[in-house]
Every structure is written in C-alpha cells, then in structure tokens.
Amino acid sequence: MQLLDRYLAAVARSLPKGQAADITAELRENLLSEIEEKEAGLGRKLTDKELEALLIAFGHPLTVAARYGKTRYLIGPEVYPFWFATLRVVFGIVAAILVVGLVIRIASGDASPDRIAMGLAGIWPSLFTVFGIVTLVFAAMEWGGKGRMKLKWSPRQLPPPRAPGRKPIQIVSEMVAGALVILWWLGLVQFAALVPIPPFVHIHLAHVWAGLFWPILAYWSVEMAINGLELARPGWTRLNAALSAAKNIAGCAILADLLQAGHWIDVNATVSPFALDQMRHGFDRGMQVGITITLLVIAFKAAADVWRLVRGRTGAGGRANGGLSGAPAAG
Amino acid sequence: MSIDGDIYEILRLELRRGSLILAVLGLLRAEHYGYTLRKALAGQGVDIDEGALYPMLRRLDSQGLLTSAWREEDKRNKRFYRLSPEGEVLLGRLEQDWRAMNVALDKILQETP
C-alpha cells in the first residue's frame, strides 16, 4: 500500500491543514473498500500496476484536493464581463497615448528608426502592466465580495438597438488626431518634419490666426469632449447631436470669419521677388480652397446634426425613440 | 464539437448535475459511508464520479443536511452519513419541486406539435 500512502500524502499537502487528516482518512477507507472489492472479484491481491491505474482513475492529487476547497478563481463569471470590458477600454486609451507619443516623435523629426523600434517594443510592457493592474483590481473586487454586488443600471443607459454609425476605434482615432492638433496649436509639438518644404522657404501662420486662437482652441476641445462623451455614453444620441450641431455651427462661424481675411500664410524665402510673390499667392490660394471646402463640410455636418435632433424629437427613424425599427415587416 | 459526442455529453452532465444531489439525499435516508453509497447509487442506475461524490458529502454535511460519524465496521473506521432532520425537510421540498418539474416536462415532451 506504499502507492496509496504516497497518493494520500500528496492529496493532504493541498488540503486545508485543519481538515487534511480527516479527509484523507475518509478517502483511505473509501479507496481501501474499492480495492478490497476488486481483490475479492479477482481472487488475489492487486498488482502495483492495477493499483496505480485505480489511483490514476481516481484523479490527480491536486484535482482531488481542489474539489474539497471553495471554488478558486481569480475573476469569477459575474465579474468577468466587467473586467473584460474595462480592459478593452483601458487598452484602447493606453494604445492611443503611446501612438500619440510616437506620432509626435516622428513628426518632430526626433526619431531614428532605432528609437521608433524601441518605442514600438515598449508598447508590450505597458500593455502587460495595465493588464496586471486591471486584473488585480478586479480580483480584489472578486475576493472582497464586490463581485456579487448587484450593479445599479437602467435600460435607459443602454445604447439604442441600432448603434450609432461610428465604431469606438473611429472615435478614438479622431480623439488621437484632435489631441495632436491641440498640442500643435498650443505650440507644444512641431510637425516641421512632416511638411515637405525646401529649407530655404520659411512659412508661418498669418496674423489672422492669432486673433482666432481661443475660438479655435475651444472648437477642438469641444470636439474632444463630444468624442469622449460618445465613447462613454453612446446612448446619449440627442445630447451628442445637440453639442455636435452647436460645435459645427461655431466652426462655420470661425471659418467664415477666417475666409474673409484673404491672407493666411506668411512666406519668406531666399528667391526672386517674382518667385516669392508666386509662392505667397500659391499658399494663400491653397488655403482659400482648403478653408472653403472645410466650411462646406462642417456646414453639411451641422445640417445633419440638426436633422438628427429634429428626427429624434418627432420620433421618426426609430433610433432616437428606441424603437426596434430594424425588424422585418410582416407579410 | 459534434452533436453526438461532446455537445451531448455537456448537456447530459448539466441535466444530471442537479438531480444527483436529490439522489444522494434520497439514498441517505439510510446510513451509508462513501463507497457503499456510490455502489448503491450505481445499483439504482445513477453512476457518479467518486471525485464528485465524496466532496459533495462533506459539503452537504457542513450545510447541516447530513449528520456524520466515524464508526468501526469490519475492523476499520469509516465515516457514515445519514440525512439530518433539516435534510429530510429540505429533501421533501426538493422532491415536490422535482415531481412538479417532471410532470411539466412530461407534458411538454409528450405534446405533439
């Protein structure tokens, strides 16, 4: 019975100390009863190989011992979906921050291929660290009993059945772009390396932009806030449409004001006066076209937002009033 | 996963899980120790893995549904289990639920579409 003793000792090692002796004594009796019955059927003692097979069939010592303990898991089935959802959001934020940092470094010309490679390699330790922290927090909730807490929620907080057109990745991408624009507008980063201009040409924004510094900063900040709101509360479509409409109407006003200036870029270059004049005209012409197109696009967006608001008020379309209008018509 | 193999096995286990406790409590109206209980269950057509049965006995005992005592039999000490008075009351209630469920299921399964 040396094998049986070794087996039970292995089981005992993984049992709670206070119960180990009692449980293994009971297991021994049950196993001995089974062994005796088999031996009675065979009319002889079990060989070591037969005993080994019987113990293997009974289960690995760790598995057998685990069945006597409480269910052990780091994150249980009730907490798991919240852990996973949080992880996805936090991963998205961390990845966005790292990408913004990398883009700034590349754009400012402060990045050799080696440094970019190091930056990319650094993403993994960051993600693993975040994974560990989020998992520890939720494991603490699980073990602290918060996993069984009933979360307060209401169907009103849920997004409409037809989700808004934009996916989270699109919203996050816009937020990343918005953050870069704000940092550039505040003069915190430079994108000189990205502008394909010969070194003897120097361009600067004309004076008109300085007069619109705060409106433009406010516009992009509100844009960021609206995107953040859409990400956090996708179901608040009416508030989102209202804020978006207000922002786009303000954007139209800023652009209309800007368009009246007639001169947007100061250009200096060590070229002939004629060439310099042509260059200045070219830059301003390009800006005029760009500002006009942007104005039209934003005006169209503002109209679309107002339409969303009006449609929501009248209950048309099913999305704003939560109707399941996606169901196929009968007949 | 095949419907004949894995899926069937998973669903069969789910179907049996709840009813095994009922079978164990029912048989423990008479006193048994672990191994003889398993044999008695098998004799009634209810095969149960010993790795599941023995911890289940401990759990039911700690919940107060069983009483247990070490006693010598055939020159060896064995832990015998029996339904406690609380366990008998609970078994009666579970039995009622089981019968009601059986009647409902029979009706559903026998109904022609």
Overview features:
heterodimer, A: 331 residues, mainly alpha, two-stranded antiparallel ribbon, 12 helices, 3% strand, disordered C terminus, B: 113 residues, alpha+beta, 4 helices, 3 strands
At a glance:
Chain A is mainly α. Chain A contains 12 helices and 2 strands; from the N terminus they run ααααααααβαααβα.
Give the topology, please.
The complex is a heterodimer of chains A (331) and B (113).
Chain A: H1 2-13, H2 17-42, H3 48-58, H4 61-66, H5 80-107, H6 113-121, H7 123-143, H8 168-185, E1 201-205, H9 207-211, H10 213-232, H11 237-259, E2 265-269, H12 273-314
Chain B: H1 3-27, E1 32-33, H2 34-43, H3 50-62, E2 66-73, E3 76-83, H4 85-110
Antiparallel strand pairs in B: 1-3, 2-3
Query: What is the highest CATH level, the class of chain B?
Result: Mainly Alpha
Helix content of chain A: 55-70%
Structural class of chain B: alpha+beta
Q: What summary fits the major beta sheet of chain B? A: 3 strands, antiparallel
The arrangement of helices and strands of chain B along the chain is HEHHEEH
What percentage of the residues of chain B does DSSP assign to strands (E)?
Answer: 15-25%
Order of helices and strands of chain A: HHHHHHHHEHHHEH
Q: What is the percentage of strand-forming residues of chain A?
A: under 5%
Shape of chain A: elongated
Query: Overall pLDDT of chain A, averaged?
Result: 81
The neighbouring-strand order within the major sheet of chain A is 1-2
The main β sheet of chain A shows up as: 2 strands, antiparallel
CATH superfamily of chain B: Winged helix-like DNA-binding domain superfamily/Winged helix DNA-binding domain
**Helix content bin of chain B:** 55-70%
List low-pLDDT spans of chain B. Answer: none
Number of domains of chain B: 1
* Major β-sheet strand ordering of chain B: 1-3-2
